[in-house]
Amino acid sequence: MSSSQFPHRRYNPLRRQWVLVSPHRTQRPWQGEVNPSSGFSNVHYDPNCYLCPGNQRAGGNRTPVYESVYIFDNDYAALLPDSPAPDPAPSPLLRAERERGRCKVICFHPDHSLTLARMEPAAIRTVVDTWAAEYAELSRNPELRYVQIFENRGAMMGASNPHPHCQIWATEHVPDEPALETESLRAYQAEHHRCLLCDYLKVEAEDKSRIVCENQDFLVIVPWWAVWPFETLVLSKRHIGSLAQFSDQEKTFLADILKQTTTRYDNLFQTSFPYTMGFHQTPTDGGPHDEWHFHAHYYPPLLRSATVRKFMVGFEMLGMPQRDITPEGAAERLRALPAQHFLDL
């Protein structure tokens, strides 16, 4: 038996964190009952959905009758552009700072039943164009230092509405996750005079065991350090920092790779696969950030079926993250799935 089938830990150079891998706990490729749960809807318009065209939203505003992408400021925004500074704290242990920002919602499509996996490539390309335009616009605001684009898909990931949509939170400070990645990317560049993710992309392209899919401009892998069972990392093949720098071709191929990835997720358990996805890209704080390399993280919770999920509990909350299925095994399962959606086969 290979040494990789015994307990070991793997290092994540982006987060400077270790993950415990315990593959001996599952000696077979797959174990456990597979419970079906499609999660798909055939409702194209829901009169009770505040993101469907023409409906009134919970905050009182009305969603217009839109035909493509629709953007609006979140009615219940987590960040406000005019938040005051907190009152002085009585102790340095009770530190607080002002956090101003903007929160937007982007509806991908007027059809309530769709997801990225079920949308046409041209429609996804329109979404990519919108992401790029919104990143560029928000980055011009000197009070906003980071633009986080993310999608929570499915009730299992806390999505409050099944209509195809994502969010943008633009913040006064660089949030912890991209700030940590910035430090790691800078440190690697200072030591090696190269990009960490460019070097990592070369390693994965040569190894191939963790590749899920790729096209001319993007590579999708289950990263060496993956925590979630079917976590993936989408890497730009060109050293590029943000959506604002994408060529027309790269926008088209980003749309393609997102459809490929989400389609394989749906095909895995023949369900509308839940996940949190987000782009990590150049902070908008005015720095040069030559160290930054555009990438996207997919964090899906499903473990054994459409209804069995992974939980972060026990040792993982108190010690360190842990997984049983190796990243290589997860990639093999995803890679073997067809690129065509199972509902279209």
List the keywords.
345 residues, alpha+beta, HIT family, subunit A, 9-stranded antiparallel beta sheet, 3-stranded mixed beta sheet, 24% helix, globular
How would you describe this protein?
With 345 residues, the chain is of the alpha+beta class. The chain has one domain: HIT family, subunit A (2-Layer Sandwich), CATH 3.30.428.10. It is 24% helix and 18% strand. Strand 1 and strand 2 form a beta hairpin. The chain is globular. The protein starts with 7 loop residues before the first strand and ends in a 10-residue tail after the last helix. About 2% of the residues have low confidence.
Write the layout of secondary structure elements.
Blueprint lengths: L7 E5 L4 E5 L48 E4 L27 E7 L13 H19 L6 E8 L11 E7 L4 H17 L3 H12 L3 E4 L3 E4 L10 E5 L11 H22 L5 E6 L14 E5 L15 H4 L3 E2 L3 H9 L10
Parallel strand pairs: 2-12
Antiparallel strand pairs: 1-2, 3-4, 4-6, 5-6, 5-10, 7-8, 8-9, 9-11, 10-11
Helix pairs in contact: 1-4
Structural class: alpha+beta
Strand order of the largest sheet: 3-4-6-5-10-11-9-8-7
Strand content: 15-25%
CATH class: Alpha Beta
CATH superfamily: HIT-like
What can be said about this structure in brief?
This protein is of the alpha+beta class and 345 residues long. 24% of the residues lie in helices and 18% in strands.
